[in-house]
Structures are given as C-alpha cells and as structure tokens.
C-alpha cells in the first residue's frame, strides 16, 4: 500500500509536468492552428541557457527566468522568421517546417555540447516526505506541483477571463473577422507562440533535474507523452490537457513501478488507441453542431 501511494503521488507530480507541456501544444494550436513538432527541441535550447545561467550565478530563480525569456524569444523568432513565411491554408506545411527545425536544433546542440547528459541539481531535496509513516512526495515534487498548478490556473484565467485570451482564440478561429474588429492578428499569433514556447521551456526545466540530465534529446519522451495527452483531451481543451496529463503520469508511474519501464510506452499507446476508438476528437473535444 505504501508503494502504491508513493507511485500515485509521484505520478501526479510527473503528470502535471506532462500537462504543462501538453498545454503548450494546446496554446499553439488555439493561437495558430498548428502542431509544433519543434516544441521539445526549442524548449531544450531554452533549458541549456538556463543551465548556463545557473552554473554562472548559482541561482535557480535566475535560471528559471532565463528559460522563460529564452523560450518566449525563441518562439517569437520561429514564428516571425519561419512560420509566417509558410502557407497557412493547411497545417501540413507548418508541421513539415517544424520537423525540419527539430533536426537543425538537435544537430546544433549535439555539435556544441555532445551526447553526454549534463546533470542538473534539483532546487530542493528529492527524498520523499512521510505522512503517517507513508512516503509521499519529495520537496521538489511539491515545488513542481505548486508551480504547475499556478501556471495552469494562470493560463485558464488568461484564456477564459481576459481580453488578450479572447483575442488569441478569435485570431486563430476567425482571423478575417478578427481583423475587421480591430484585432492585430499577426501580433496575437506571435504572442501565442511566445507563450507556448515559454510554458514548454518551464515544463522541461522542471523535468530535467529528475531525469538523467540535460542533452539534445532530453525532452523527446516528454513530447511524445504530452502530444498523446493533447490528443486524448482534445487539442482545443486545456482542461483535457490537465486531466490527461495526470492520468498519463500516474499510468506511467504505476506501470514502471509494478512492471517495467519498457512497458510504459506500450501502456500509453494502448490508452491512446482506446480513447481514439471511442472518441476520435479527444475526450473533451467540443461537439460539432449538426447541419441540415
């Protein structure tokens, strides 16, 4: 029983990191109607900057701010320098460019830093705390939990309670109408990219200290899990990303703890298959209105 509680609690913490990254995919989909396959590679670039800042200053706060700023600037640069020049009639050209960008970024990081994993020390201890003699979350897991919940709530308020969030959504769904109403659609798309890339960088920064370390492919598995979560919940649903992230995180933790880490991807794939067979658009995908 103690082991189950520990696995579930750590799975929830890991799931919220997955949910954060899935939210970054939802943000970019809602803002630009594109699945950014370069999201993980861009986030790793930002975390390398954070790694350098932490090594130079010894401050995790500085590293955190550096990752967010670098992620946002990189998102703006990719949108303005690449994606804005790609035809937006269908998502496919943008996806192809994003895949090419993954190859370029990972190759450059590999050339500059090599294949070795660079360990990042967690800002807090990873020793599990005990509640009533039962080991649960570590201090670092609690920190991740709080940060993830704050960001999720903040994004929810932004998109559902603010004028900026409404403009971001309107620019993606009906750009021509939005232009007529005075919304600067190109600016909204850029802001969407910046916000999405910053959230992805935060998710990877929170994850790397609990893994082998930082290298060019540190976020690859996270991207696969997050993309699965986004599809499970529906690419238009932040709530689906949050719930799906927790479910996938707990599933991976339980399968790894009771069976084998090698079976975890198969369990996630099985879950994805079942959901898509039952509800192809995702669990929280909005129902389309019937037309005569």
Describe what this molecule looks like in 3D.
With 292 residues, the chain is mostly helical. The chain has a single domain (2-121, 137-278), classed as ABC transporter involved in vitamin B12 uptake, BtuC (Orthogonal Bundle), CATH 1.10.3470. Helix content is 71%, strand content 3%. The chain has 11 helices and 2 strands. Strands 1-2 form a two-stranded antiparallel sheet. 43% of the residues are buried. The model has no long low-confidence stretch (mean pLDDT 85). InterPro entries: ABC_transp_permease, BCAA_transport_permease. Pfam families: BPD_transp_2.
The end-to-end distance, rounded to whole angstroms, is 55 Å
| Number of continuous helical runs | 11
Helix content range: over 70%
Helix-strand makeup class: mainly alpha
CATH class wording: Mainly Alpha
Second CATH tier, the architecture: Orthogonal Bundle
- What fraction strand? under 5%
Number of domains: 1
Subcellular location: Cell membrane
Transmembrane segments: 6-27, 34-53, 59-78, 90-113, 142-159, 188-208, 266-285
Main location: membrane
Keywords: Amino-acid transport, Cell membrane, Membrane, Transmembrane, Transmembrane helix, Transport
SSE layout:
Blueprint (H helix, E strand, L loop, with lengths): L1 H31 L6 H19 L2 H22 L10 H22 L14 E4 L2 E5 H23 L1 H11 L1 H6 L4 H23 L12 H14 L4 H21 L5 H15 L14
Antiparallel strand pairs: 1-2
Helix pairs in contact: 1-5, 1-6, 1-8, 1-9, 1-10, 2-3, 2-4, 2-8, 3-8, 5-6, 6-8, 9-10, 9-11, 10-11
Pfam families: BPD_transp_2
Membrane topology: Multi-pass membrane protein
Family: Belongs to the binding-protein-dependent transport system permease family. LivHM subfamily.
